[in-house]
Known about the structure:
Helix content: 25-40%
CATH topology of the largest domain: UDP-n-acetylglucosamine1-carboxyvinyl-transferase, Chain
Number of domains: 3
CATH superfamily of the largest domain: Enolpyruvate transferase domain
Distance between the termini: 39 Å
CATH architecture of the largest domain: Alpha-beta prism
Shape: elongated
Amino acid sequence: MTPVNFLDLPPLLSARGTVTLPGSKSISNRVLLLAALSEGSTEVRDVLLSDDTERMLDGLRTLGVGVEKLDNHVFRVQGCAGNFTVNDAELFLGNAGTAFRPLTAALALSGGHYKLSGVSRMHERPIGDLVDALRALGANIDYLGNDGFPPLEIFPATLSGVARVSVRGDVSSQFLTALLMALPLLDREVAVEVVGELISKPYIEITLAMMARFGVTVRRDGWRSFTVAAGSRYATPGVIYVEGDASSASYFLAAGAIGGGPVRIEGVGSDSIQGDVRFADALALMGAQVERGPNWMEARAPANGKLKAIDLDCNHIPDAAMTLAVAALFADGTTTLRNIASWRVKETDRIAAMVTELRKVGATVEEGADYIRVTPPRVGSRIEERGSSENQTPPSLPLSGEESQRSPHEKGELEGVSLDPRSSLLNPATGIDTYDDHRMAMCFSLAAFGAEGIRINDPHCVTKTFPDYFARFREVAQAVPVIAIDGPSASGKGTVAQRVAAKLGYHYLDSGALYRLLAMAAQRDGIALTDETGLAALAGRMEIRFEGEQIWLDGALAGDELRGEQCAAAASKVAAFPRVRDALLSKQHAFRRAPGLVADGRDMSSVVFPDAAIKIFLTASAEARAERRYKQLKEKGMDANITALLLDIHERDERDTRRSVAPLQQAVGANLLDTTALNIEQAVQEVLARYLAKGF
């Protein structure tokens, strides 16, 4: 069986809460390497555990560096002062630029023989400017593939005595970082001149700050040149803490700005050495309400509920700027992000990837060599989405406490914001491609604040920097609530569900009707009820609409035959096919719209909406169900025989309970509600009471 390689995020209603951030990848890998290059033992705390840091740790161990894991995020590194005990080794460094570039520089200035390789994308990421600078210092490096790109083979260096080298600054700041971190291994003063504009300057600030913590102060002439003095040596600070990751903070802060908030992140704040903390300033320019302290930041939606477009030079926040590109979907106007050429040479070509995926959700996107311009879909407004739907009764019961406590996003006050509920161009079965790029996956989780949620393909790529990202995201993001009501045939679940939906002003889904409609459409189109492939294809192209008690199929009003026993029996047959159920799953998910959904069926709780706010298994005795069905048919002027109905109910229960796909059963965590002795209104009130008791 092929493993599922996607994650469906439901449509989100709001966001609020607190998140403690994992350690910074950039700081973690710098500190681990500096600890190895220093004299003495260093205890490194709050290390990020991710693919990239594992590559650095594996590399150091391969080189003979003593690395001991003291606790989950605590390591002791025994420094070797740059004299690696293993002088002939092969290192595989995945797609970790923060490991590959600095290790290349450190090993190139040593006396060993090493081969460095990574994944195929790492072999497409340029390294030629760093290699040229190292060769000028006497390093002996060969390319094993294409010139200017990994993999590399490093031989013992013949140091040249050169006191000044140059490196381009407009491709990747990691070239300068790698050089600066390796220069204290030499016995002389060396100056590095930056050619062209230096991009990602805040990451150089991180490098300089971490080098200073290990006893090496770099003299600088602005951003033009950097000098490491003769005699510089790294010395352990004893214990050092890794800051929370400011780039990762951007997703949660943006969630607060889009979803009402407040969302607070802890672990990084106004005292941070990371440039990406200035993402909060960019959100403030978009109108978000932002507060911050020494070690925390917090964001909530603008006072008027609307984000506004910005035109911003993003050189100071190159990674976090990706989050702005998705946040632009929820802003009034066209957002332009400039000076982001470095996106082209990251884990993927992030400009091209962003353009492709933003267009999937209906945005108009323009790209250039170093900019991206995003105009959100403008078909409708949030007020249409958040208000009560057509043909539904407005709420007559409180939904979630005092109205004043609800966010503008929940109350339907974000008029003018994009991603209209009726205009999503994203095919749920296609989803957002992530290009093996962790930041693509995390950024586009924010698109779930649109009307239909979002599918993220290859979500596991987040392990590069934030392995439990989606679990943490769910902790602060509140999905559009679902009341899932399952139960056997004729238990009254449809009538109860419809009335609960009307009282709450929620949308309603009669899941069983989908299968009956499919059976009707199959008979109309001459498709055999045994043709699984044909039925699945038909299920995918059917157009279904609920309007009060009326149900429409492909533009035509379905008649009373939809509720007949013959149609019900046919529905049970088509529902037994796995491909049919898969085809109808996305249609069922599409009914999940703000402010909420009440869905009835036989696998709503277990399969379709396993994250439902409350799960009800509504049942009654077979005799009571037969009598209700008898009365229902008689009221419609249809012939009925109670003995035959009772027999049919017993047979259908047996068939539905034994079927291999989504058998009828009470889901784990579902509330049992036996309505044998209850009338419809009593059953409705019981469901409402149980739902409201959960705080909705």
